[in-house]
Specification:
Strand content: 15-25%
Shape: globular
Oligomer: single chain
Radius of gyration: 30 Å
Structural class: alpha+beta
Length: about 800
Amino acid sequence: MQENTLIASDFRFSINLPEDAIASWHQELEVMYILQGTGGLQLDDNQFTYEVQQDDIIVLNSYQLHALNMKGSGKALSLFISPAFLAAFCPEIESIIIECKSFLYPKDEQARFNVIRSEFASVFQAYYKNESRLPILMRSRVGVLLNSLVHTFLEQNKQKDPSKSSSKERLRKATDYLHRHYRENITLSGLASTIYLSSSYLSHLFQKQLGLTFTAYLTNVRLSQAVALLRSERTITDIASEVGFPSTNALIDAFKRRFGVTPGQYRLVNEHDATDPQENIMVTAGFSTDFTSLMRHLHHNEHSIVQPQVNEGYDLHVDTGRKIRTLSHNWRTLINAGYAKDLLNGAVQAQIRKLQKELGFRYMRCKGLLDDDMMLYVRKMSGSADYNFVYVDEVMDFMLSVELKPYVEFSYMPSALAREAVFPFKRPSILSMPEHLEKWLDLVTSLVRHFIDRYGIESVREWRFAPFVSPEFSGYGVFTMEEYWVLYRETSHAIRAIDPQVHIVGPGSNIDSSNFISEFLVSCSKGNCLPDSLALRAYHSILPGQEDTGLQLMAEDEAFPLAVSGDEQFMKHALHKVKKLLRQRGFASLPVILEEWSNNIWQRDLCNDTSYKSAFLFKNILENYDHFEAMGYWSLSDHMEEIIPSSDLFHGGFGLFTRGGLPKSCYRALQLLRYAGSGLIAEGDGYFITSSKGEIQIFLYNYCHYDTLYRYRHTTHLTQTERYNVFNIRNTRQYHIRLDGLTPGVYTERRYSVGPAGGSAFDEWLNMGAPKDMRPEEWSYLEGRSLPLFQMRSLQVTANFVVNAVVQPHEVQVIRLTR
């Protein structure tokens, strides 16, 4: 059972999975809702099993023995309420019994249970919308739920027998110990000694209270853990050892007695179930709808969906004559343009020209320069291979023609060189080590020499070269970290042998991979191949076990199994750790660049098209302004896709532009950021204030993070047109900014805004009725309507002038005061 502490002493949620089927009890009051599927529920010492199914809601009283056995992909969600909270809320509840079992009643008698379902859903929404940050609100919601349970389901003729509590408490200590130490060689006598009981008395407790022997209970605990591990790629032998069985055969025998199949057979059956499209409607989109049935009950309670009710006030006092630091605007150093072959597409080239005309980046990075579709290294029928630079030259010529310097990544592996062919994406990109390292090095050196011959040594020295792909791709199992290191070192040496002044970057690892970064730099120092810039990537992603949420991450084959971090300052905190590590290792002067970054790795996140993305860019660029040498946002266009393309205009791609070249709200955000002045005079939560000669620029944003469910790829209330229901609750922000030291006189105030109310192509598309197909004149209308909102007026400014602004959730604003 996966647990998560909400308010440590009061409440916790957990998800019940099929492997959790074991008799247990606890002090807390448990309210359980069946999310999906069917299962069997045993209560107390009754051997009768009740059938439960989706939408059933049940209350399990304190110390009520129960066992829930969900079938297949079935899941249940439980809320545990502590005895301390129960005693404070309703002292008499400690000695009474709640009889709430919806499965005992027909459909026409479910009205009173619907009230409980609605209030349970309201409590859960308060959790995943981060209202749990407000303990008073969370307690009030749980109080409403308890009030309904007591008034509707209190069993008047039943009370708890206090005499049974002591024996159950002793047994609870025993079972708790088993759940913590099941991997060890535990005996009945050893356990009895640990908890100061006799062996005979402890054995009697197991038989009387659970109907199981000590050995049978311990075996069940180990089997439950084994079932969970069967979802991984561990071998049966490894699993047996990890969960405490003395041998593989012991696990297989016990597993077959309980489940009727061997562990291997169970794994095959459940792999089939997991990919059954009928089990989970949105699996093909990479998301889960596990909680949809519960959240439908929110409509029973008109107060369930909380909207911002108050303004959050921010009173700022800014000395306009004080400059914190000079700004270099490094976020405009690098942009990602997808794959090399994409740059030969006229539509993509038009988007790049627009980008350069309006924003002006210095470098452009693309992947796949060595892919087979670039025809660079092609094997002949005779078996030999030749170099062909035609497409590569066209890509480089185009970049240089729009005043972009190439950021060359040597990726991926040409099929003629590959040791094995692994395709990580729905593109002809092969992830592999070379079968012969010397042939790989010949290709790299030939390409670098060709660049120097064609473009000149001085020009190429200004480029950037990445020797290979990110080391995280070792997770596909096609190369080891040792093989990666050898390839990186030898490729780096080969490039420097041509010209020591060529700028090499690497390794392109995740920004929070501190251990790898440290090992990499030490190895590079010893191997004489330290990069000129430390290249990192940041997708605000975490592995499932890095947070304690109690939620099951739903992964699929078109993305790494990662969730979005709950840390809203993920990039800022990660960079701080990297800079600290560099100082400790003696590399403090090494420049750090982000060669890729975005809000997550989901290539079909419908929120990418919304105003959320403009606030995300504002927040992360402004919070980290000039702290990186470059910030290469991924990516330029929705035309670049690593999965099957979508025909929908707004399909959740990473791009600043749609496939047809329509600028999204995130592009509009970058247009506004270009107004940043040359000096920073104030910064903080939600604001960034700069100055230049004769002008003050105020940048404001109201960022809303994904709610907990969506961070773990569970969707609730999300559709093609309804995309703002998957965020934490945020209030409107009201800013009062006093600007001291201004020269009095007449100023021109220009205000720009991007948000759901204007400046967002997606939101304007919704206002048009979300048309599937648009005529050219309608397309032009939409592009014109998606420009940032703009107001301009003249003001009489005093030396102590106050600027007022109201910023809605998902909105960004820029205010320019020009003398």
